[in-house]
Specification:
Elements lengths: L1 E5 L8 H15 L5 E5 L7 H5 L9 H5 L1 H10 L6 H7 L1 E3 L4 E3 L8 H20 L4 E5 L5 H9 L2 E5 L4 H10 L1 H4 L2 E8 L7 H8 L6 E5 L2 H9 L2 H9 L8 H18 L8 H14 L5 H4 L6 H9 L1
Parallel strand pairs: 1-5, 1-6, 2-4, 2-5, 6-7, 7-8
Antiparallel strand pairs: 3-4
Length: about 300
């Protein structure tokens, strides 16, 4: 199963953080889990620096010769890496239930893009032999992003609470919406763009959207490189822990995403039907107050809906 995480806005929607949290939680939930994380871009704050810092650096021999770069070069040379080869190339976490393939310091952005464009399908075949779920963190805009989105079995889209960005997603990405789930990260219930309003205005099925409120301790764990211990604490959280309310938010979000990943792809078209209905209502001079009566337009009611 190929699951791509993507947003059309860089830096504010939390797409990479969502991937990391969900993949960690999944590994904690399932003792038989076998997840693999890859990226289609290089970053000074890569996922490995977010998960758990333990002394590796881009200058180490491991990062020069292992990882995704090594795998792509071997595939390009006609080799067929074994599962043992791939285990050696990857960082392993949580009892080897979660693996991450660093890109490697000796593979520049242009080389990475070239190798992915020319070996993408062979790479997928290779990695899917090793994993149940291939978690893929995608750059907002890159040549390989579109290729991966088209090939992904599921797409998890991080939505900012920004109408312009949301309109861009629903107006230009119809081909991926049939396999999309939406996460509103850093969620602010006082924003005008509440989850309930987005459900109503864009025709999103209530089972295909979740929220994750802003939580400073989560952001701190990301910047300190201790996200795995932090999520593990959330996973084992009890009611007397100050983090318990956020742990519930995280659990609900993760379980909705995992439930969607295991579901059937649905027909796209709800957004178009909603827009046509709105046009018809406007033509009939009906008040737009009709939409505020659907039950989810206030931030507080929208939040209660998702958590319920």
């Amino acid at each position: 199963m190929k699951v791509a995480f993507w947003s059309n806005v860089r830096g504010i929607s939390g797409s990479t953080c969502h991937l990391a949290c969900i993949s960690i939680w999944h590994a904690m939930m399932d003792p038989m889990a076998r997840g693999v994380i890859i990226e289609n871009h290089k970053s000074v704050t890569g996922i490995d620096k977010m998960l758990y810092k333990h002394g590796n650096s881009d200058g180490s021999p491991y990062y020069r010769s292992g990882g995704l770069g090594n795998l792509l070069r071997r595939i390009a040379d006609g080799e067929h890496p074994t599962m043992l080869d791939m285990d050696w190339m990857a960082e392993r976490y949580i009892g080897e239930r979660l693996m991450y393939f660093p890109i490697g310091a000796d593979l520049g952005p242009e080389q990475l893009s070239y190798h992915l464009e020319n070996n993408l399908d062979d790479m997928f075949k290779c990695l899917e032999k090793r994993t149940q779920i291939l978690w893929m963190d995608l750059m907002t805009s890159a040549p390989t992003t579109r290729m991966i989105l088209n090939r992904a079995d599921r797409v998890i889209i991080s939505l900012p609470q920004n109408r312009t960005a949301i309109e861009q997603i629903f107006g230009n990405h119809k081909e991926i919406r049939k396999k999309a789930f939406y996460i509103m990260g850093n969620y602010d219930e006082d924003s005008d763009m509440t989850v309930g309003r987005i459900i109503d205005e864009y025709g999103i099925d209530e089972d295909r959207i979740a929220i994750l409120p802003h939580y400073t301790m989560l952001m701190d764990s990301v910047s300190r490189g201790v996200l795995i211990p932090f999520v593990m604490r959330l996973f084992h959280c009890t009611g007397d822990d100050v983090m318990y309310p956020f742990a519930l938010d995280m659990e609900i979000m993760v379980k909705k995403v995992l439930g969607f990943i295991g579901s059937e792809v649905q027909e796209v078209g709800a957004y178009e039907r909603v827009q046509e209905s709105r046009k018809a209502l406007l033509v009939a001079n009906r008040s737009d107050d009709h939409y505020s009566e659907s039950g989810f337009h206030t931030a507080r009611r929208g939040r209660a809906y998702i958590l319920g």
